[in-house]
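User: tokens in, sequence out, please.
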């Protein structure tokens, strides 16, 4: 799983960039917030990256700061919010302001973001308030990252990603991980081990 890219900025457009790393061009989707911080084409650039696994593709989402990446990952953990919508949200509000809005339950501020209706804003504040507080209070987001990684959804996501990186198809990996999760006691290592055993038969 790609977590960070450092290379030469080949293409820079609102919404996506291409970064050359050792002769390989990586297409990376970015929010407008990240886009405005990037240097000019031909400059060196470093992006924190979230790798999104789909049935037909691997998509990379890049961030100018670890904080923006953590807020993005909090949002996509909410049912019905995909990476594209999360990126659009972060194009309409700075990551730190998003964290404060979630903690304060500021639905009005979230509704002001293009593409965010009242029901979605209310769901975000309800589901993410505690995690957002951890992110604000944790050192560089370490507390929030640890809490998310221990959560059931975080474990399932990491285990699935691990199997996909080993060469298994997404559907096969998801099925094996879900089957193993109920028997593994919540530990990532156990979920992966049992999922691999399940695939092997």
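Assistant: Sequence out:
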């Amino acid at each position: 799983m790609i977590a960070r890219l450092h290379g030469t900025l080949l293409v820079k457009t609102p919404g996506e960039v291409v970064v050359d790393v050792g002769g390989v061009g990586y297409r990376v989707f970015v929010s407008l917030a990240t886009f405005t911080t990037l240097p000019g084409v031909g400059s060196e650039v470093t992006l924190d990256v979230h790798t999104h696994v789909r049935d037909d593709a691997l998509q990379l989402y890049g961030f100018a700061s670890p904080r923006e990446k953590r807020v993005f990952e909090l949002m996509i953990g909410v049912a019905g919010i995909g990476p594209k919508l999360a990126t659009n949200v972060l194009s309409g509000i700075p990551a730190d302001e998003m964290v404060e809005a979630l903690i304060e339950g500021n639905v009005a501020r979230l509704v002001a973001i293009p593409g965010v209706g009242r029901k979605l804003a209310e769901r975000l504040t309800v589901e993410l308030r505690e995690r957002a507080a951890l992110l604000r209070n944790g050192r560089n987001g370490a507390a929030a990252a640890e809490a998310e990684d221990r959560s059931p959804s975080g474990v399932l996501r990491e285990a699935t990603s691990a199997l996909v990186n080993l060469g298994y198809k997404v559907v096969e990996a998801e099925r094996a991980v879900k089957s193993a999760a109920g028997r593994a006691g919540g530990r990532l290592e156990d979920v992966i081990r049992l999922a691999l055993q399940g695939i092997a038969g």
